[in-house]
Amino acid sequence: MDGYAILVAILAYLVSLSVHESAHAWVALRLGDPTGQRLGRVSLNPARHVDPVGTVLLPLLLAWSSHGQVIFGYAKPVPYNPYLMRNPQLGAATVAAAGPASNFVLALVAAVLLGLLAPDARLGGTLGLDFLFRLVTVNVALGVFNLVPLPPLDGGTIVAGLLPRRAGPAWARLELLAPVVLVALMATGTLGRIIGPAMERAVEFLLRLAWSLRG
């Protein structure tokens, strides 16, 4: 087991997850709902977002079994009240979209810093550079995964917010089955085969961007 790789991966994961959840709470606040702020969720402190199983146990087990190559988990959901927003349906979709969007922004920032700071084409080799590289890969993975249009992922909430009202009852029925479908897709590897290429292309694009900054 590569303890160094696991440490870097876990650190990048905690930062990325904290940005994701804080973005949900911050956007909800901007749209008129202070629920997340009152609970201290507009914060980059990982302790504010930790779920004992999803944020600690599951990522550690995956990191250990994959030598730091696979990090997956979840944080405590950020509660919000869409009825405090001017447009509840669109507001909920906007709050949901803020999480993946924040991950893509963080991945871009990390890639830019990596390209500017790396001494050569390895784009790594020190704790700081390895951490930036991990920020790119972890945030792309979080962003793409959470855009899968199935509840309880952010993508499911985004779809629900964009659907016409008449489609609401049908979508509500789908929400009852969606978690089972999601688990089945993950367990069979189907989800990975669907979104894996998108993740790989996004990471490749960002790393090429990072290298282009070196002139």
How are the secondary structure elements laid out?
Blueprint: H1 3-30, H2 35-38, H3 52-65, H4 88-117, H5 127-146, H6 154-162, H7 168-187, H8 190-212
Helix pairs in contact: 1-3, 1-4, 1-5, 4-5, 4-6, 4-8, 5-8
Explain what you see:
There is one protein chain. This protein is mainly α. It has one domain (3-212). Helix content is 69%, strand content 0%. Helix 1 (3-30) packs antiparallel against helix 4 (88-117) and helix 4 packs across helix 6. The longest helix has 30 residues, at 88-117. The N and C termini lie far apart (37 Å). The mean pLDDT is 88.
- Count of all domains: 1
- Overall, the morphology is globular
Mean pLDDT: 88
Given the structure, what is the number of helices?
8
- Percentage of residues in helical conformation: 55-70%
Q: What kind of assembly state do the chains in view correspond to?
A: single chain
List segments where confidence is low: pLDDT < 50 over at least 5 consecutive residues. Answer: none
Largest sheet: none
Strand content: under 5%
- Note the run of SSEs as H and E: HHHHHHHH
What is the number of strand segments? 0
- Ends: how far apart? 37 Å
Structural class: mainly alpha
**Alpha-carbon Rg, integer:** 18 Å
Short description:
This protein is mainly alpha-helical. The chain is 69% helix and 0% strand. It has helices at 3-30, 35-38, 52-65, 88-117, 127-146, 154-162, 168-187, 190-212.
Notable traits:
215 residues; mainly alpha
